[in-house]
Design a protein that fits this description.
By secondary structure, this protein is an alpha/beta fold. The protein has 8 helices and 8 strands. A 6-stranded mixed β-sheet has the order 1-2-8-7-3-4, with helices on both faces. A two-stranded antiparallel ribbon has the order 5-6.
């Protein structure tokens, strides 16, 4: 009920063009050409290139816009498989502190709320407080910047992130998950940027 009151007071607004009604409107979404690219061993599915309206929407998401996160989640949902286990790439604590919202987790949550997908917030940044008190086995499953906080038993996992550029983050996350027993072959992101350019 509370959420509905909030929706009435602050209706969703397109993060790219400002139109009222959705955090990423149909007109802006229609400008996107869906992409699938490879990064390492991963197939990365995106709504489109990191450009134009999609770039503006992703920047709004990074700026803490929940309505934009929800709308992008609804848009990426069809690019995930039925029954998929979704693991969001974790936001750094400092970013979370500043923005008050984990946009990527919110996007993944919106996908799962549409049904038949399961959210597993299994990754944390390595070398943070979150690492304390973990078992040695889990600490050993850390790869690069990420640590997996749970065990998997061969389940297939799909990573979720906002933007993919070089893919280094996704590849590190996949390695941490695979060290914890998951199988990771795919990622779904809002936007894919050319490998040679930083977003
Ligand atoms: Zn728009």
């Amino acid at each position: 009920v509370w959420l509905r009151v909030v929706d009435l007071l602050f209706p969703a607004q397109c993060g790219a063009c400002g139109a009222i009604g959705s955090g990423f409107c149909d007109a802006c979404a229609a400008e996107c050409v869906a992409l699938t690219e490879t990064r390492g061993a991963l197939l990365v599915h995106g709504l489109g290139a990191y450009d134009g309206p999609l770039r503006r929407a992703v920047l709004a998401l990074k700026d803490g816009r929940r309505d934009v996160a929800r709308a992008l989640g609804e848009r990426i949902a069809p690019r995930t498989a039925a029954g998929a286990l979704l693991v969001p790439v974790p936001t750094t604590r400092s970013r979370l502190r500043v923005r008050g919202m984990d946009g990527v987790a919110e996007m993944a949550r919106a996908v799962c709320e549409l049904g038949d997908r399961t959210l597993r917030e299994a990754l944390v940044h390595a070398g943070t407080d979150a690492q304390r008190g973990r078992s040695r086995a889990l600490r050993l499953s850390a790869r690069g910047r990420f640590l997996c906080s749970r065990r998997f038993h061969g389940e297939r996992v799909t990573l979720v992130d906002d933007v993919c550029t070089t893919g280094a983050t996704l590849v590190d996350c996949a390695a941490a998950l695979e060290a914890a027993g998951a199988v990771v072959r795919e990622a779904v992101v809002a936007a894919i940027a050319p490998k040679q350019r930083d977003p």
